[in-house]
């Protein structure tokens, strides 16, 4: 495994059947503590709303809970859906986090709503807000700079803290914006892989250096399920497959226990399996011996600097075992390798 490729985790504090959001958030913090010990670089929470299985809607609040229980691993958003928020409010929230946990905070930004149209209206989100995403990113960035002479509105806390921004995306738009602004770029290939290679090509080819970043820095999302055997890992993977199948059908529920993979064969409607396989193309499932060459090939083909790993596993101990196995594949030696 390339020693210069960093390893990080995207977490949703998923609520499994039989659990609660509170238990899920505490389990997520325990996960972050173990990831820190094993040498993972970052621990990011996603922002989603009105989804029963995801506990991280109040992203900055949840990040503070994790940051308080850790000491070296970077914590951040993967990402804040900026059109849902005023840039000043996000600058204040992440300025607060940076003030409490200096040098450990990342602010990943996306332009999708992270929810459905009815919830968008409940969030008081302007339907056209995504069109101003580039200027909103720059406004937010400015709040983290020292105040200019005569500036009447500042982020307190936030001003002068220069919290590092990331652009998240699954299309060429985000790649172009990240390159134009000289920001690191994270591609959501763990669920929307179609434009991965072209987006990375555009980002690397058009990158403009900035005060934050001198050269391109890219991250790609992948799903990883590691177990003692390939069969055990494939069974664990059925939890994510079932969750995404619910998303395709518009019937999201709590995270279900795994099932025998063969039992899914009777559930597919026409075209669903093909669509799901396409969405989850970059899912590496198996024993350490099986997964290692798959990830090596992915890193070689993409040239990314960092992997952001997502793992939806029903049982907390099986999830810990999977991440520990991945750390062993990478040869991490903690904190934070």
Automatic annotation (TrEMBL):
<protein>
    <submittedName>
        <fullName>Alkane 1-monooxygenase</fullName>
    </submittedName>
</protein>
<dbReference type="GO" id="GO:0016705">
    <property type="term" value="F:oxidoreductase activity, acting on paired donors, with incorporation or reduction of molecular oxygen"/>
</dbReference>
<dbReference type="InterPro" id="IPR019949">
    <property type="entry name" value="CmoO-like"/>
</dbReference>
<dbReference type="InterPro" id="IPR050766">
    <property type="entry name" value="Bact_Lucif_Oxidored"/>
</dbReference>
<dbReference type="Pfam" id="PF00296">
    <property type="entry name" value="Bac_luciferase"/>
</dbReference>
<dbReference type="InterPro" id="IPR036661">
    <property type="entry name" value="Luciferase-like_sf"/>
</dbReference>
<dbReference type="InterPro" id="IPR011251">
    <property type="entry name" value="Luciferase-like_dom"/>
</dbReference>
<comment type="similarity">
    <text>To bacterial alkanal monooxygenase alpha and beta chains.</text>
</comment>
<feature type="domain" description="Luciferase-like">
    <location>
        <begin position="17"/>
        <end position="305"/>
    </location>
</feature>
<dbReference type="GO" id="GO:0005829">
    <property type="term" value="C:cytosol"/>
</dbReference>
């Amino acid at each position: 495994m390339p020693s210069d490729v960093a390893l990080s985790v995207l977490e949703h504090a998923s609520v499994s059947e039989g659990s609660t959001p509170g238990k899920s958030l505490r389990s997520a913090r325990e996960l972050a503590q173990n990831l820190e010990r094993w040498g993972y670089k970052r621990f990011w929470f996603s922002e989603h709303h009105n989804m029963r299985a995801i506990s991280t809607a109040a992203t900055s609040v949840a990040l503070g809970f994790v940051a308080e229980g850790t000491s070296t691993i970077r914590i951040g958003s993967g990402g804040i859906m900026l059109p849902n928020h005023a840039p000043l409010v996000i600058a204040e929230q992440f300025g607060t986090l940076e003030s409490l946990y200096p040098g450990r905070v990342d602010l990943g930004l996306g332009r999708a709503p992270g929810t459905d149209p009815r919830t968008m209206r409940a969030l008081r989100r302007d339907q056209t807000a995504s069109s101003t995403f580039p200027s909103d990113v720059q406004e937010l960035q400015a709040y983290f700079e020292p105040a200019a002479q005569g500036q009447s509105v500042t982020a307190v806390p936030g001003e002068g803290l220069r919290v590092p921004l990331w652009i998240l995306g699954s299309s060429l738009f985000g790649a172009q914006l990240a390159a134009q602004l000289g920001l690191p770029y994270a591609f959501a290939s763990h669920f929307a892989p179609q434009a991965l290679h072209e987006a990375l090509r555009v980002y690397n080819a058009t990158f403009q250096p900035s005060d934050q970043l001198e050269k391109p820095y890219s991250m790609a999302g992948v799903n990883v399920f590691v177990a003692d055997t390939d069969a055990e890992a494939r069974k664990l993977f059925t939890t994510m497959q079932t969750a995404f199948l619910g998303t395709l059908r518009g019937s999201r529920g709590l995270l279900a226990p795994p099932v025998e993979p063969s039992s899914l064969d009777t559930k597919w409607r026409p075209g669903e399996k093909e669509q799901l396989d396409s969405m989850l193309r970059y899912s590496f499932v198996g024993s350490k011996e099986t997964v290692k060459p798959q990830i090596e090939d992915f890193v070689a083909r993409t040239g990314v600097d960092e992997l952001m790993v997502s793992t939806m596993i029903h049982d907390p101990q099986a999830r810990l075992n999977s991440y520990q196995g991945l750390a062993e594949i990478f040869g991490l030696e903690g904190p934070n390798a």
